[in-house]
Amino acid sequence: MSKPSPTSTGNGAPLRLGLIGFGCVGQGLYDILQKLPDVGFEVRRIAVKNPTKLRPLPADRFEFHADDLLDDPELDVLVEVIDDPNEAFRLVSRALRQGRNVVTANKAMVARHLPELIRLQREFGGTLLYEAAVCGSIPVIRTLDSYFGQEPLPSVSGIFNGSSNYVLTGMTTAGADYATVLAEAQAQGFAETDPALDMAAFDPRSKAVILAAHAYGLLLNPDQVLNLGIESISSTDIRFAAERGQKIKVVATLQRLSDGSAAVFVAPQFVGDDSPLYHVEREFNGVVVEAEFAGQHFWRGRGAGGHPTGSAVLADLVALRNGFRYAYPKLNTATVPEPAADLEVEIYLRHAPKDLREKLHLTDVVDELNAPGFSYHYVVGYARLSTLLRHRDDLRRAGTFVARTGPVRTPVGVVQQQAAAELVVE
């Protein structure tokens, strides 16, 4: 099979797309292209999984074997926007072995298989772009890869999941309970059918892993990255933060430490109004980049929904047409950091059984409530990231809520003086 050109059909005609998946993102992209007929892309074929599902296009527009699109030499670009990361990897890796050009929005697939995806591009000459996989409409991946490709970055942090942020906004501003706002988010298409992907912070963990490759050249196994979510949050926690002039946000932290290593984790965090993340609400995402020479940069944009994410897919299509591909400039340099050795972080811990509190080995406890007449127990102190990761599932099963309240430090108690860490916490 001849290799399709990434930039042209050869006669100035629109690039011919094979669209795999027609859910929220696929429909969003299709709608955008219909409204921009002169943008230069044509959805030639659409492959979906379920032949009985009702869709807003005539039935004859759909087919049900995605591999047929991979075997079609007349398609210039394949756009993969399905929700199954295993099937997505099978299709995308096969396409790259053919030297084809692919755009994907599947963050779990990219995070899990990024080293292999990079190898396949280099070996077979195809191009994979995935801006839509991280933070919806915010162009953070290309910015890190190109604009900040050479500059050291003390930190990249932010709200990477619009679904959980939508829930937190509803609980904070309207006083609604968790279950009610979650159902509302799902009804509006902001949250997955399986809420754990968003609410347990697996989704922002995937995004943090992807950004670590572009910010630091660091290729991580997602299973080794701590992710704590908001499944057990209550109005009690929202009030606790409000009484201190703060809000709770799920924040992904990528931080270069003074020893040259890098810490990457995701957790609910108490955020003060001196942080730009304090004002990021509903389904919006926010990204803060601290650059060594350029200083602080902040982007805010919609992180969920068909049109915002479809817009990012369109941007990748335009980039492909112009011959763009990720350079991964920090991947093969002498300054690639090692993952940080064990660190401690100050946390707020509510409703943890005594045996679980003992397993966490909290130190430097600064605040605790466990008195008769109170319906809950909370404690504020330092815990190791590795211990939290080891007992993450125990915390979820126990209905325990954990939020970051303070800085990262080494286990011996030497606080890492990083400007980015002070960006979102006092």
TrEMBL record:
<dbReference type="GO" id="GO:0004412">
    <property type="term" value="F:homoserine dehydrogenase activity"/>
</dbReference>
<protein>
    <recommendedName>
        <fullName>Homoserine dehydrogenase</fullName>
        <ecNumber>1.1.1.3</ecNumber>
    </recommendedName>
</protein>
<keyword id="KW-0791">Threonine biosynthesis</keyword>
<comment type="pathway">
    <text>Amino-acid biosynthesis; L-threonine biosynthesis; L-threonine from L-aspartate: step 3/5.</text>
</comment>
<dbReference type="GO" id="GO:0009086">
    <property type="term" value="P:methionine biosynthetic process"/>
</dbReference>
<comment type="pathway">
    <text>Amino-acid biosynthesis; L-methionine biosynthesis via de novo pathway; L-homoserine from L-aspartate: step 3/3.</text>
</comment>
<dbReference type="GO" id="GO:0050661">
    <property type="term" value="F:NADP binding"/>
</dbReference>
<dbReference type="InterPro" id="IPR005106">
    <property type="entry name" value="Asp/hSer_DH_NAD-bd"/>
</dbReference>
<keyword id="KW-0486">Methionine biosynthesis</keyword>
<dbReference type="Pfam" id="PF00742">
    <property type="entry name" value="Homoserine_dh"/>
</dbReference>
<comment type="similarity">
    <text>Belongs to the homoserine dehydrogenase family.</text>
</comment>
<keyword id="KW-0560">Oxidoreductase</keyword>
<dbReference type="Pfam" id="PF03447">
    <property type="entry name" value="NAD_binding_3"/>
</dbReference>
<dbReference type="InterPro" id="IPR036291">
    <property type="entry name" value="NAD(P)-bd_dom_sf"/>
</dbReference>
<keyword id="KW-0028">Amino-acid biosynthesis</keyword>
<dbReference type="GO" id="GO:0009088">
    <property type="term" value="P:threonine biosynthetic process"/>
</dbReference>
<dbReference type="InterPro" id="IPR001342">
    <property type="entry name" value="HDH_cat"/>
</dbReference>
